[in-house]
Amino acid sequence: MNLKKSPGGSSTRNSELKSVTRDDAEFIQMQYAIYDPDITICGGVGELFRQEVHPNMSWKQTTRGVRWYRRNAHKYVVEFYHPAARIGTVSLLRDLLDAIKEIKEIQERSCADGLRSTENAERVGSPVFEDCHANKKGQAVLLIGFGGPTRSEEIRPFLDNVLRGRPVPRERIEEVAHHYELIGGRSPFNELTFRQADGLRSLLEREGSPVPVYVGMRNWHPLLADVLEKMAGDGVQRAVGVILAPHQGEASWGRYQASVREAGIAVQEKLGRPAPVVDYCEAWFDHPDFVGAVADRVRRQWERIPSRDRPRTRLLFTAHSVPSRLDRPYVDQLRESCRAVASALEISEWDLVYQSRSGGPRDPWLEPDVCDVIESLGGKQCPGVLLAPIGFVCDHVEVLYDLDVEARQVAAKWKMDFLRAPTVNDHPRFIRMLADVVRRALEGGVSRGL
Fold first, then answer.
1. Who contacts 409 (Cβ-Cβ below 8 Å, separation ≥6)?
2. What sign results for the dihedral spanned by CA atoms 262, 264, 267, 268?
3. pLDDT at position 237, please?
4. Strands 350-355 and 314-320
5. CA dist., res. 25 & res. 71, Å (int)
6. φ, ψ of residue 13 in degrees (nearest 5)
């Protein structure tokens, strides 16, 4: 773990390290959540790292004086010498390996004690929380989403929560609030997510794999911290986390993982015991049932186009734009999804475009923008466009306003036909895909990073 962006010289001042760590705290936390390592070794920067990433953790010491702490049931942070320290390589490695061996032995003893406590508790009928060994009784699924306001009075508090104090002009906030007002004064995101959860729960039960399914949101109720606390109260020790964003990247999966980690720390601090451990399912951007669900949504709209116009109607797959520096593996996975859907539909001509850009106007974000592409196609006498929001799994404001209002207006300016496929929402094949990735994760198929 190196907290500097660029290599240092022969030495680095503590003031410089502190400045870099403070300035890049959000980036450091995001990167760390993505890789989610089993063992983190901090070369001379352990305390700075702890303060920024795990501020509620406390150091322990091995018999040789090596400081460490456990960040969850099976993952550790160890403070050790910098690799360039003036210590012989053999001694450096031997001492580090001895420390890790001792830490693992401490954990094994803790697990054994926990299992004995469990047996005793079962005899007297009192519940305990096992933080060492998961079992079916203590497993669950956590669907993780963005969240959205469910009625008009929630719109502005929701937007304030999304921004988290970032300096955004009030007029811009009011502009976005007006977008919600134009689509009915609410977002259907939460309702659709709970429908997905209900469908998943029912399918797992029907197929003999019953497991509790919870829903937690980054930006609105039910908030992740509240849900993790409820899960702990329900006896859940481990959960399969399903991030409701098809394509991985720092701006999508990375931020959700960071939010879950922060929520877990808050719950542990409140309850005085570990929150449920969340392992994430494997990537599903190319899962046959996800591809099939998207293809079915698009096919139903494609068949509405008069046969004479289909050869010149352009299929535009849309996804949320992100800063260009965060394009991998996000763009690669998007293109794989688009190719798979287009192949299933036997459509050879299509484009991947981006939408809902935010951030400073001078910062480079992924392009081309969907409205710019429609404008260009209109100038070439294209008869119509079919938009497929492949980067989203629920119809919400970025679909219902950014596409159905803004993009449609551009198409109307050029007298173009405008069609938009629904997102997968609770399509049966998408629910089946969720069940498949959950079952795989419960059997050990979890993602350890992007």
1. none
2. negative
3. 95
4. parallel
5. 18
6. -75, 145
pLDDT at 446: 62
- Parts of the chain with a pLDDT under 70: 1-15, 17, 21-23, 25-27, 29-31, 33-35, 56, 64, 72-74, 82-94, 107-136, 445-450
Contact 80, 87 (CB under 8 A): no
Q: Which residues pair with 385 in a beta bridge?
A: 314, 418
Cite the beta strand spans of 62-157 per DSSP E. 67-72, 75-80, 139-145
Cβ proximity of 132 and 273 under 8 Å:
no
Query: Can you tell me the distance from the alpha carbon of 333 to that of 249, in angstroms, rounded to the nearest whole number?
Result: 9
What pLDDT score was predicted for residue 119? 43
CA pair distance 228, 402, nearest whole angstrom:
32
Instruction: Quote the pLDDT of residue 128.
Output: 28
Strand ranges inside 189-325, DSSP E: 213-217, 238-243, 277-281, 314-320
Q: What share of the chain is helix, strand, coil (3-state, %, to 5)?
A: 50, 15, 35
| Residue owning tokens 């929001």 | 389
Peptide bond into 368 cis (omega under 30): yes
Note the Cα 309 to chain centre separation in Å.
39
For the four alpha carbons of 86, 91, 97 and 103, in that order, the dihedral sign comes to negative
* Confidence (pLDDT) at 101: 82
384-to-258, 272, 344, 351, 401 alpha-carbon distances in Å: 41, 59, 21, 14, 19
The two three-digit tokens of residue 280, written as one number: 């994430």
Per-residue model confidence as pLDDT tens digits over 35-63:
678 888 887 787 888 887 777 677 887 87
Mention every residue, 6+ apart, whose C-beta is less than 8 A from residue 66.
78, 79, 80, 95, 96, 99
